[in-house]
C-alpha cells in the first residue's frame, strides 16, 4: 500500500525529472543504480529463451519473438513499430557423416563424425554422397591442391586461437577462423568441390559443432558443414595415414525469402525528439540453441534501457529507440532495411549502440567517435566506474553488424565492452543457453547501456560523426 | 646400424637382468625411465580410438578391438588367450525429444531437448510417446509424489557436484549422481512411470548428454535417457511456470546376448609363474565416443607395461598378466568370467591392478592391502617420486569394477591415483576422444603401472590378502 508521502515523492520526482539538468552526475548514478537493482532484463531474456527458444530468421520462433518483444515494449508504454524485413529462410535438415574408408580401418567399421550444417548450405542427395576428404589449412594450400579438389569434400582444419581470445582478442581470433567458414564454401564450390567442411570456429573441447553463415548463393551452393574440433583433428590424423573417404548427408532447405520485422520501440524525446539514439541487439539467433548470449543479452539489455528510464520517469531530449534487429546472423537484412528507411535523413541518427558480444562482464564502452569527442564522455564513465565498467575505448571503426551501414554514413557507434574470453566456446552452438548468462552481469550490462543512452540523448556538446566516414 | 658394442651391451643387459636382485632401485628406475621415453602406449591408444572408435559390448567395434589388442600383444611375444564372455547387446536407436506444451508457450512452438538413451533403455513406440514430465530431486520426493508418477515421464534434476570433484572427490560426486541414473529407471518403472530422465551426471556445461548403465531388466524396461544439464534446468524452470508435456522418441534395441572376449596376454613368470599379477583396463567403451579416457588409457597403459618390460628384457618371477576386460560398462561380465575361471585357485591371484579413472596426471597408487603391508611399497614409491607419483594410499577397499569379485575373495587391488577433476566432464559423452589424453600423462601412467607390476611380480615380502575379505 502506498503512503501519501510515497505518492507525493513519486509525483515530485516525476515532475522534477524534466526540469533537472539532464546529464548531472546524480541522474546518471540514479540510472545505474536502478539498473543494478532490476530483474527486468533477465526476466525478458528468460521469456525469450525458455518460452520461445531458437529464433532463426524465417522460423516460427523468430515470429513469436517479434510478438513477444513488441508486446513487452507496448506494456512499458513505448511507441512500437514493426519494420518489415524480407529475410532468408534456411531450414536445417538431417545431418550425419561417417568415415567409410581410411588406412587401417577394420573391415565393416566406419567412424561417426559430428557436424552441423552451415547457414545457406546446399543439400546432398537424401541418401547422402560419398567422396574423398582433402584436409587443408588455408586458402593457399587449397589452391596448391586444386587438382585434388574436384569431386572431393574439402576440410579446413584451422585451430581456433583460444590463447588470443584469452588475451582479450576474441573478436580477431574469431575472424581468423570464420573467414574460412564464410568464404571457404564458395571458393571450394567454384573449384569443383562436392562438399565443404570447416573445423568449428570456437575454443571449447566438448565435441560440439559451431554453425554460422556462409557466402554461398544459388549459383554455387554445395553442402557445407562445421565439424567439431575433435572430428576435424581425427580426420586430419587419419589423412596422415592415407586417403580418407566420407559419406555425408545434409538435407537443409533454402526456401523463398520470408516476411519478418525489426521491432522498434521509441521512448520519445522532448525538445529534440527528431534526433535518434539507437540502442539495440539482434533478435534472431541460430537454430541450435536459444541464443541467450547471441544475442538475447543484447535485446534484453536494450529492452532494459527503456524499462530503467521509464521506471525512473526520465524523459530524454532526443528519442531513445530500442531496436531488436531481425536477421543479423545470416543476411543483416534488418540493418539494411533500417538504413534504407533513414539514409535520406541520416543526420537525424545521432548515435547508435548495439550489444552483440554476449553477456560476459562489461568493463566499459567502445565508440567510433572523433578523438575530440572523447572527453565529453567523462561523466558517463565516472558513473560507470563503481560497477567496474569505466573503460572508454575510442576507435575509428566499431562496425557492429546491424549498424555497419549507419556507421559508413557517419553515425557514431557505441557498444559495451565485455569479457569475451569464453564467448566463442558457446557461440553458435547448442550450448548458448540461459544458464550461461549471469544475472548480475546482465544488470551491469543494462546499467552501461542505460547510462550511456541517457547521456547521448541529452548531451549538449557536439558529438560529430563517425571517423570512418572521412576515409 | 648396431655397433658391436651395442650388441654386446644389449646381451649383457639381457643376461644380467635375470640374475640381478629383482626389486633393486636401479631396475625400478630403469623401468620408470623406459616408460617415460616410450610412445608405445599412446600409439596403441591412437590405433584403438582413431581406427576403431566406440567399443560397446556386442558391437563390431568391440570385436575389432579384441582382435587389435590380441594382435599387438602377440607381436610383443606375449602369450595371448581370448577368454569367452557372453555380453549384453544393446544398440542405440533414434533419440529425440520436444517439450510440446508448457505455460507461456507461443502457439505452434515446441522446444527441442537434447538427450541420449541410457544403457538398457527400453523403446518408445517408433512415433514416440507424449506424457507430462514430473521433476524431482531425490527418491524421497519421487515417493512423496507417487500419485503423479503413473503415466508420467520422471526427471531427476540432480546437479553434479563439481566443487566436490575439484576437491579431489570426483568418484563420490559421481556416485551421488549416478545412483539416480542407475536405480531411478527401475524404481520409476515399478511406480508406473512411462519414461525416465536423469540430468547428465557430469560437470561440463556444453549441452552434452552423458550416457551410462541402468539397473533395468526385461521385467521393468521403460524408455530411459540422460538429458543435458541445460535441458534439465530448462524443464525444471518451465515446470515452475506450470505443467510441462514432452514428446519422447527413443528406439534402442535390447538384443540377445552376444559372444565376446577378455583379452589376456601373459608375460610368463620364472620361478613363481603360477602366481599371477593382473594389470588391466577395460576394452569396452560407451558408444557415443571413442572412449580414449574411459578406458582406452587403462588398456593402453596395461599394454604398455608388457612392452616396457619386454623392451628391457626383464623377466618377472611371477606371471604378469595384461587383461583388457570386456563389458565393464554395462554388465561387468568380463570380470565375472575371469573370477569364475579362477575362484577355485584364488590364492594364485597374487595381486590385481586396474586403471579406470582416465588419463589425468597420475600422482600415486591406491591399494587395498593390509596396514602391515604398506611399508613394503617404499621402494616402488621412491622410484615414482621423481615423476610426481609417489603418493601411496591404503584403503580397506578399492573396488575397481572388473576386479570387485577378486577383491571380495581376498585379492589385493591396486590402481593408479590420477587427477580426476575434469574426468567427469567428458565421461560417457561424445567428447571422450583421443585429443583429451596428454601423451606425457599417459607415459607417467605406464611408468606407474610398469614399476608397480614389476615390483609386485618380484616382491619377497608377504603381501597378504585384501582387508575387505576380513569383514
Ligand atoms: Zn550475434
Ligand atoms: Zn570405465
From TrEMBL, chains A, B:
<keyword id="KW-0458">Lysosome</keyword>
<feature type="signal peptide">
    <location>
        <begin position="1"/>
        <end position="19"/>
    </location>
</feature>
<comment type="subunit">
    <text>Homodimer. The monomeric form is inactive while the homodimer is active.</text>
</comment>
<feature type="domain" description="Peptidase M28">
    <location>
        <begin position="262"/>
        <end position="451"/>
    </location>
</feature>
<dbReference type="GO" id="GO:0005576">
    <property type="term" value="C:extracellular region"/>
</dbReference>
<dbReference type="GO" id="GO:0070573">
    <property type="term" value="F:metallodipeptidase activity"/>
</dbReference>
<keyword id="KW-0256">Endoplasmic reticulum</keyword>
<keyword id="KW-0482">Metalloprotease</keyword>
<keyword id="KW-0325">Glycoprotein</keyword>
<dbReference type="GO" id="GO:0005764">
    <property type="term" value="C:lysosome"/>
</dbReference>
<dbReference type="GO" id="GO:0046872">
    <property type="term" value="F:metal ion binding"/>
</dbReference>
<dbReference type="GO" id="GO:0004180">
    <property type="term" value="F:carboxypeptidase activity"/>
</dbReference>
<keyword id="KW-0732">Signal</keyword>
<dbReference type="Pfam" id="PF04389">
    <property type="entry name" value="Peptidase_M28"/>
</dbReference>
<keyword id="KW-0964">Secreted</keyword>
<dbReference type="InterPro" id="IPR007484">
    <property type="entry name" value="Peptidase_M28"/>
</dbReference>
<keyword id="KW-0865">Zymogen</keyword>
<protein>
    <recommendedName>
        <fullName>Carboxypeptidase Q</fullName>
    </recommendedName>
</protein>
<keyword id="KW-0645">Protease</keyword>
<dbReference type="GO" id="GO:0006508">
    <property type="term" value="P:proteolysis"/>
</dbReference>
<keyword id="KW-0378">Hydrolase</keyword>
<dbReference type="InterPro" id="IPR039866">
    <property type="entry name" value="CPQ"/>
</dbReference>
<keyword id="KW-0479">Metal-binding</keyword>
<keyword id="KW-0862">Zinc</keyword>
<keyword id="KW-0333">Golgi apparatus</keyword>
<keyword id="KW-0121">Carboxypeptidase</keyword>
Amino acid at each position: 500500500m502506498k503512503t501519501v508521502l510515497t505518492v507525493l515523492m513519486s509525483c515530485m520526482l516525476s515532475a522534477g525529472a524534466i526540469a533537472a539538468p539532464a546529464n548531472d552526475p546524480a541522474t546518471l548514478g540514479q540510472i545505474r543504480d536502478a539498473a543494478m537493482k532490476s530483474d527486468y532484463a533477465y526476466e525478458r531474456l528468460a521469456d525469450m529463451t525458455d518460452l520461445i527458444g531458437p529464433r532463426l530468421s524465417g522460423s516460427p520462433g523468430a515470429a513469436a519473438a517479434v510478438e513477444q518483444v513488441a508486446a513487452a515494449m507496448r506494456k512499458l508504454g513505448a511507441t512500437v513499430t514493426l519494420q518489415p524485413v524480407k529475410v532468408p529462410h534456411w531450414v536445417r535438415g538431417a545431418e550425419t557423416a561417417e568415415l567409410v574408408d581410411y588406412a587401417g580401418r577394420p573391415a565393416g567399421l566406419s567412424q561417426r563424425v559430428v557436424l552441423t550444417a552451415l547457414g545457406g548450405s546446399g543439400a546432398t542427395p537424401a541418401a547422402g554422397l560419398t567422396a574423398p576428404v582433402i584436409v587443408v589449412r588455408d586458402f593457399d594450400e587449397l589452391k596448391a591442391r586444386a587438382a585434388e579438389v574436384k569431386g572431393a569434400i574439402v576440410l579446413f582444419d584451422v585451430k581456433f586461437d583460444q590463447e588470443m581470445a584469452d588475451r582479450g582478442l576474441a573478436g580477431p581470433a574469431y575472424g581468423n577462423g570464420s573467414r574460412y567458414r564464410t568464404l571457404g564454401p564458395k571458393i571450394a564450390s567454384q573449384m569443383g568441390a562436392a562438399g565443404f567442411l570447416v573445423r568449428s570456429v570456437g575454443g571449447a573441447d566438448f565435441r560440439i559443432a559451431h554453425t554460422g553463415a556462409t557466402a554461398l548463393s544459388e549459383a554455387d551452393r554445395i553442402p557445407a558443414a562445421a565439424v567439431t574440433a575433435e572430428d576435424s583433428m581425427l580426420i586430419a590424423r587419419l589423412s596422415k595415414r592415407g586417403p580418407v573417404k566420407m559419406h555425408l548427408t545434409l538435407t537443409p532447405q533454402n526456401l523463398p525469402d520470408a516476411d519478418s520485422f525489426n521491432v522498434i520501440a521509441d521512448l520519445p524525446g522532448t525538445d529534440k525528439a527528431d534526433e535518434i539514439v539507437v540502442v539495440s541487439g539482434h533478435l534472431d539467433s541460430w537454430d541450435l540453441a536459444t541464443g541467450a548470449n547471441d544475442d538475447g543479452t543484447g535485446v534484453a539489455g536494450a529492452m532494459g534501457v527503456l524499462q530503467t528510464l521509464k521506471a525512473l520517469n526520465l524523459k530524454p531530449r532526443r528519442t531513445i529507440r530500442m531496436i531488436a534487429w531481425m536477421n543479423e546472423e545470416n543476411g543483416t537484412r534488418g540493418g539494411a532495411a533500417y538504413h534504407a528507411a533513414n539514409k535520406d535523413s541520416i543526420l537525424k541518427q545521432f548515435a547508435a549502440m548495439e550489444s552483440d558480444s554476449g553477456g560476459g562482464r562489461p568493463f566499459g564502452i567502445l565508440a567510433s567517435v572523433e578523438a575530440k569527442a572523447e572527453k565529453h564522455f567523462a561523466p558517463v564513465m565516472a558513473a560507470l566506474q563503481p560497477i567496474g565498467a569505466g573503460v572508454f575505448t575510442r576507435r575509428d571503426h566499431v562496425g557492429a553488424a546491424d549498424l555497419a551501414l549507419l556507421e559508413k554514413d557517419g553515425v557514431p557507434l557505441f557498444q559495451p565492452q565485455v569479457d569475451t574470453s569464453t564467448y566463442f566456446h558457446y557461440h553458435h552452438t547448442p550450448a548458448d543457453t540461459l544458464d550461461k548468462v549471469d544475472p548480475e552481469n546482465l544488470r551491469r550490462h543494462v546499467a552501461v547501456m542505460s547510462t550511456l543512452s541517457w547521456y547521448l540523448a541529452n548531451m549538449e556538446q557536439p558529438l560529430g560523426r563517425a571517423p570512418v566516414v572521412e576515409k
